[in-house]
Amino acid sequence: MLQRIQSLHLLVVAALSGVMFFLPLMWFANEGEQVYMTALHLLVGDAVIGKTPIYLPILMGAATLLPLLTIFLFKRRMLQVRLCAVEAVLLFGVLAMEAMLYFGPQNSLDAGALQPASFAPAAALLFVWLAARAILRDELLVRSLDRIR
Fold first, then answer.
1. Cβ-based neighbour number of residue 10 at 10 Å
2. 74 pLDDT band (50/70/90 cuts)?
3. Average pLDDT, whole number, for the chain?
4. What is the rounded CA–CA span in Å between residue 69 and residue 52?
5. pTM, whole model, 2 decimals?
6. Closest Cα to residue 75, out of 1, 146, 149, 148?
7. In sequence order, which residues have a C-beta less than 8 Å from that of residue 105 and are 6 or more positions away?
8. How confident is the model at residue 56 (pLDDT cuts 50, 70, 90)?
9. Strand ordering across the sheet containing 41-44
10. Which residues of 46-72 are buried (b: 16+ CB within 10 A; e: fewer)?
11. How far is 114 from 25, CA to CA, in rounded Å?
């Protein structure tokens, strides 16, 4: 199960999605202070000044757990491909939520910058595509061997 390359790709997707919970996603300047946005909170130093919308941590949590579940469905390859497609949709949702929070009209803070953790969903999309491609290649190999018998 873990010796397959797609399992390693899916582990990388889970790791990239999980790291977003612990690192700041972006920062903003507000009245001379730097406000950091994590997956759950808005922070000034160590003080919590607000919460992010609940949809972002829910999407990030689902995007973290789904690849781990997909790894253990190694005997059902076509279901794995479908779950990879669902994972891609979740990651696009995380990217859309980040863009909405960064560029949205509710953002009343002066200036800001994205942190490296905010680009993790884009990198995870690449690994989801690689995993789905490897799973499909395995399925084609199994089907070709069934024809020979």
1. 31
2. confident
3. 84
4. 27
5. 0.84
6. 1
7. none
8. confident
9. 47-51, 41-44, 33-37, 26-30, 111-114
10. eeeeeebeeebbebbebbbebbeebbe
11. 6
